[in-house]
Amino acid sequence: RSTHNEMEKNRRAHLRLCLEKLKGLVPLGPEASRHTTLSLLTKAKLHIKKLEDYDRKAVHQIDQLQREQRHLKRQLEKLGIERIRMDSIGSTVSSERSDSDREEIDVDVESTDDLPADLDWSSSSPSDSDERGSLQSVCSDEGYSSSGVK
Predict the structure, then answer these.
(1) Vertex 43 angle, CA 58 and 57, to 5°
(2) What is the per-residue pLDDT across 8-58, written as a single tens digit (0 to 9) for each?
(3) Per the CB 3.0–4.6 Å rule, which of 54, 67, 95, 148 could disulfide with 104?
(4) Which domains does the chain have, with CATH numbers?
(5) Which intervals of the chain form a coiled coil (predicted)?
């Protein structure tokens, strides 16, 4: 019987120690300094649920950010390839013309018969307009010179 009492005493001491540790981990709020075991366990349960929710949201945000990062990396690679292509086109064009050739270039603004019919110039960027001017100039075989391109 005394062995049983000693074991029970140790069990309760261990339980009390665990509850004290739990009290240190769980935010209890500004209420009374003395909490019942039930209120401590209830607050611990709510705190765990809040942490799980926070963790779930953080994992979701990490997934979103990783998707965005992959998208931006693909976009960066595409822009890098485009830049290399544009740099090589620019160096080819500039090496083909001398300084005197750059002063004035005839551009045919009326003749677009030789251009493909499916070209849509309405949604182009400023750099596209430069390419259009050179394309029209290459495709023209008649017309008049309206301005010089520099």
Answers:
(1) 10
(2) 999 999 999 999 999 999 988 777 567 789 999 999 999 999 999 999 999
(3) 148
(4) 1-87 (4.10.280.10)
(5) 48-82
